[in-house]
Amino acid sequence: MKFQIIKHYEGLHDGDLKQIGLQPKMCPAGVWTEGWGSAMIGLNGKFLKGAANKATAFKLAKVKTIEQADALFLVDIRSTLLIIRRKITVTLNESQTEALASFIYNTGGSSTLYRLINTKSPALFDWWCSHYVTGQGSKKPLRGLVARRRSEATQFTTGKVQFFN
């Protein structure tokens, strides 16, 4: 599997050219991530969140190269694939698995989405495109999340990888 949607929308961050290597970035939900969107854990054992924790995120960051980002991604994606094996009762092809993995990797998952998939609901595409599209408690959809959800739903239903941003 290539996980093109995850890598496209998560991206690798090298925004500070004064520093060598990749740097962490804060996602729309306010969680600091590194590599291909791997959530960072603070010293308290919880997600490292908020702009006030930028210095801590940079201090705790372990991913400095693409190779390190790829290695961490392979570790992270295993738990995502395990969730799919446990929650999905119908057979998925590789494209469907990748699309669902992108959703779970980004959101943590949704029992409603699992139900829609398992029942082969005709409402699946529309639901997928309209949920989990806001961040940090906002009710306003974020353009990047709307694009990602549409990419995931398109790949799941058609098998085609398409980006909408």
TrEMBL record:
<keyword id="KW-0081">Bacteriolytic enzyme</keyword>
<keyword id="KW-0929">Antimicrobial</keyword>
<comment type="similarity">
    <text>Belongs to the glycosyl hydrolase 24 family.</text>
</comment>
<keyword id="KW-1035">Host cytoplasm</keyword>
<dbReference type="Pfam" id="PF00959">
    <property type="entry name" value="Phage_lysozyme"/>
</dbReference>
<keyword id="KW-0326">Glycosidase</keyword>
<keyword id="KW-0378">Hydrolase</keyword>
<dbReference type="InterPro" id="IPR023346">
    <property type="entry name" value="Lysozyme-like_dom_sf"/>
</dbReference>
<protein>
    <recommendedName>
        <fullName>Lysozyme</fullName>
        <ecNumber>3.2.1.17</ecNumber>
    </recommendedName>
</protein>
<dbReference type="InterPro" id="IPR033907">
    <property type="entry name" value="Endolysin_autolysin"/>
</dbReference>
<dbReference type="InterPro" id="IPR051018">
    <property type="entry name" value="Bacteriophage_GH24"/>
</dbReference>
<dbReference type="InterPro" id="IPR023347">
    <property type="entry name" value="Lysozyme_dom_sf"/>
</dbReference>
<dbReference type="InterPro" id="IPR002196">
    <property type="entry name" value="Glyco_hydro_24"/>
</dbReference>
